[in-house]
Amino acid sequence: MPLSLGLVGLPNAGKSTLFNALTNAGAAVAAYPFTTIDQNVGMAMVPDARLDRVAAIVQPERVIPTAIEFIDIAGLVEGASHGEGLGNQFLGHIRNVDAVAMVLRCFANPDVTHVYGDVDPVRDIAVLDTELCLADLTVVERRVEKLKPQARAGEKAIQSELRLLERVQAGLDAGTPARWQGLSPDDASQLGAISLVSDKPVLYVANVGEDTSPGDPAAVAVENYAREHGAVAVRVCAQVEMELAELDPDEAAEYRADLLGEHEGGLARVIAASYRLLDLVTFLTTTGGKECRAWTIRRGTKAPQAAGKVHTDMERGFIRAEVVAFPDLDAAGGFAALRERGLLRLEGKDYVVQDGDVIHFRFAT
Ligand SMILES: Nc1nc2c(ncn2[C@@H]2O[C@H](COP(=O)(O)OP(=O)(O)OP(=O)(O)O)[C@@H](O)[C@H]2O)c(=O)[nH]1
Ligand SMILES: [Mg+2]
């Protein structure tokens, strides 16, 4: 299962436009609200200069970057959690994502209706968070009612779950998303079964217009909000990125510099921020020189489980991992030189895979 991000936002915020730019999946985009009805699912390739360098060394037949899944859902409006608009049923689509990207409209464009009349991304964040809280409240209340009789019967584990749920319920009632309720990892795993939406990490995406400038007040408001809440914000012009995604990379870079005066792609920033948000690391494999590939795992994953990402047989039959840190391979310029310098390490089943490790797994079939 790839790691996934759900795009959440008001109607006409530019979710599908950003989704198309990220995934090239061709979702419907239009200037009227509630264009998206069914969810769209697509993969975004994660650009990685290390993979390019390893491929230059190995000269494989294929190079396969790692990918993150994005899910584009219907726009949320006030009352979505009570069935207003299309939001309610579609919030269900993001119960299982690993994180949420809030797409916030910072572009003006009078031709595109704003459901609340004017550009005010911080108000929009409040609307979205309220809907996430209300959706969770329904789920939590249902679970509380179910557990009460069992707790009265004296089951200790149930009583502790009930206490936790009632605490979360009170927080949600006061409008505090679960992610800001100071829940411990234990609490979070206890709540895992009911898949809350307001406890997922959030990335704030300021969708700016083509005429944006560094001092863009709407984008600055989003950035300040994120900073005050210890979160990350990124600026992107989804419209331009979607158009650039259709060009070849060199042409796109030229246009980007012309149009937005920036060289690093907005998309690359969104992807990099998503990656940080999910606390992911990348390892690379070179499979006998045939295929260079990047893989995504959570920080702290051990070698056998990392091998399991490549193939379940590799996890089951795991013997050793032959590991080299990317900077060492980069400096040596080849595996033969690495071996001579003794920089290829043999690691066992307790080895925690590090970002940028280039790994050859040894396993028994
Ligand atoms: N000027 C400008 N227009 C944009 C930008 N991003 C999106 N739009 C326009 O805004 C309109 C709505 O975009 P969508 O991507 O369909 O918005 P959405 O959030 O998916 O909307 P729903 O599916 O209705 O919830 C379209 O006409 C887009 O062309 C942007 O960065 N700048
Ligand atoms: Mg849409």
Work out the count of structural domains: 2
Instruction: List ligands, each type once.
Output: guanosine-5'-triphosphate, magnesium ion
CATH architectural group of the largest domain: 3-Layer(aba) Sandwich
Strand adjacency order, main sheet: 2-4-1-5-6-7
Spatial extent as radius of gyration: 23 Å
Number of helices: 14
Q: What are the segments in which pLDDT stays under 50 over at least 5 consecutive residues?
A: none
Query: For the report, how would you describe the main beta sheet?
Result: 6 strands, mixed
Helix content: 40-55%
The class by helix and strand makeup works out as alpha/beta
CATH hierarchy, class of the largest domain: Alpha Beta
The CATH homologous superfamily of the largest domain corresponds to P-loop containing nucleotide triphosphate hydrolases
Our estimate of the beta-strand percent is: 15-25%
Question: Could you tell me the number of beta strands?
Answer: 12
Coarse shape: flat
The first-to-last residue Cα distance is 23 Å
Average pLDDT reading:
88
Order of helices and strands: EHEHEEHEHHHEHEHHHEEHHEHHEE
Please give a structural write-up:
The protein is of the alpha/beta class. The chain folds into two domains: 4-277, 3-Layer(aba) Sandwich (Rossmann fold); 300-363, Roll (Ubiquitin-like (UB roll)). 41% of the residues lie in helices and 19% in strands. The chain contains 14 helices and twelve strands. The protein has helices at residues 15-23, 49-58, 87-91, 121-152, 156-173, 185-191, 217-228, 238-244, 249-260, 266-277, 303-310, 312-316, 326-332, 335-340, and strands spanning 4-8, 40-45, 62-64, 67-72, 99-105, 202-207, 232-236, 280-285, 291-298, 318-325, 345-347, 357-363. The strands form two sheets. The protein has a six-stranded mixed sheet, with helices on both faces. Strand 6, helix 7 (217-228) and strand 7 (232-236) form a beta-alpha-beta unit. The model has no long low-confidence stretch (mean pLDDT 88). The protein binds guanosine-5'-triphosphate and magnesium ion (MG). Residues 15-16, 35-36, 72 line the site of magnesium ion.
